[in-house]
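#struct-pred
JK: can someone run the complex with adenosine-5'-triphosphate? inputs below
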Amino acid sequence: MTELRGKKVPLLKKWTGQIPYLVRTAKLIWVSTREWSIFWAAILIVLAVLPVATVVWMKALVDSLVNGLRAGTSWTTMQPAVVYGSLILTTSLITELAHSTLEWIRAMQAELIQDYISARVHQKSVEVDLAFYESPDYYDSLYRARDDANTRPALLLEHLGAVIQNTITVVLLTLLIVRYSPWMMLAMAFSVVPAFFVVAHYNWLQHRWWRDTTVERRWIQYYDQKFTTAAAAPEIRLFHLGPFFQAAFEALRTNLRSQRLQLIRKQSLSRMIAALAGMGVVGITLGWMGWRTFRGSATLGDLTLFYQAIVGGQSLMRSITASLTQVYGNSLFLGEFFAFLDLKPKIVSPKQPLPGPSVLREGIGFRNVTFCYPGSERTALQNFDLVVPAGKIVAIVGPNGAGKSTLIKLLCRFYDPQTGSITFDGRDIRHFSIDDLRSSLSVLFQVPVSYDAPVSDNIAIGDVTSPSSPEAIEAAARSAGAHEMISCLPNGYSTLLGKSFANGTDLSGGEWQRIAMARAFLREAPVILLDEPTSFMDSWAELEWFDHLRVLSKGRTTLMITHRFTIAMRADWIQVMKDGRIIESGTHEMLIRQDGFYAQSWRDQMEASQRAVPVGV
Ligand code: ATP
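RT: done, structure tokens with the ligand placed:
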């Protein structure tokens, strides 16, 4: 990702390397703006031709004025001058109109392009493997793709438009003055070449600096977020972290600021030298034409035309070079956006998937599964075997880091194991389409997600395949033991949850967990996966909740991870995990009789809870 750091890139490659991105950008602009691009191009052509017409009519105006004054001032002699004057005025009027229309069209294009890019970034963010979210490279790439990606194509469009428009004008002006001396335009072209390369070179350096400092800029964003998000606000106050984060933020900003200013200082100096060279060339060519007029080999109209063409042409060429380097600079940044779009997920559906499971008859199986998280040296599961019989509730218990949550992530196919297979009724889950597989799961993750939305929507998003009826939403809430709590909210199921928007109501951790559980239960999937479903519940609520689960899980296969033995003991079967392996299994009574790890942990937990009961209760 940082191959540019400190590497010398040949000049030609700096330019040719961007061509594919320019082509992709052109396609992106076309796909997102369609007919607006046609209007845009048409107006650019009009705006390119009008200045040339003005130059031609200005020469004719000066010549007809000189001739009219020589022949005596009468309507007949001055008529041509009036006509040319009117034409010049009309041209100015049309130019103004065209500029306003172009501005409006560009604003329209910018909006459309922005929305198109956001949609692509969002789509790709959902498409990439979950593993991408655990790699710093992914965040670097996402950060670079997002940084200004929304505005870059619109800027590119603006500068590309300027290049096209000004090039047409310059070519037409060249045709006008080339008859005075073919070398003139060549001299003019050479006058802007140094400026062009200076700007392009610094654009490239700036892009390299921007790319190489991605990590620093992400840290800056991180510190900034710590100050402005609710999650960190309590600890920042409690631990006096404000000055600590501020100092870290300041140190990074100071470093970046001085690097950038150094770059800009060098750039300004080089630009000034290049501009002086250009001005010298203009001075020489104008002097040459003035001398010719003085000698009588050119008219006053010729001098006017030449002056306008040379001065206008040079300023246009300067603007072309500036725009070209902007096109180049913006395409460098867009390269990052395209690189992000090119990320390919590894976890994909098979070409010919099996029909998704609607009900399990045998159950879930893990056979000889070995799995190590991407980028991690530690093996989370080692030659792991497990059977969850169809229609049963199986509890998985075990110490922190035993590999319990990993089972759920593998069943969702967020990752694939390195060896072994995971099966539904004997069929490898990799043979189902990813959508079918995930639709067959009702999952409650360890950390429930809270959405800033009304309660009913918070639950309904558990199944977006069809609109959920209020009855279905209420039934799911009842199964999760959330109905009573929701009924006490100010607007019941219509209450807006979350504190980010006006009139929102926040919930406790346990209440959010119940909402998340209702969301999982709304989906009538054949497999239920619950990761610490009662971690926020008190022991009374827990027992009632389990009774609901018994009813709900009828005919379904349930895998429940829990640290609470009081809930695990109610399951049909208990699997005890440690260090990525099953070390004991059986019913609660069987495991207590075995007097192994489970029995010891059970006794420890019971004793701890006895100690926790206050005197007099
Ligand atoms: P807990 O009871 O604390 O939730 P667990 O039994 O669910 O623990 P897992 O989350 O499955 O444990 O983690 C198993 C092992 O994999 C642990 O050693 C953990 O550090 C590691 N691990 C978990 N997630 C990742 C990850 N995304 N990348 C790298 N290693 C991970």
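RT: quick notes.
The first strand starts at residue 363 and ends at 372.
Residues 509 and 536 are 7 Å apart (CA to CA).
JK: thanks, will look after standup
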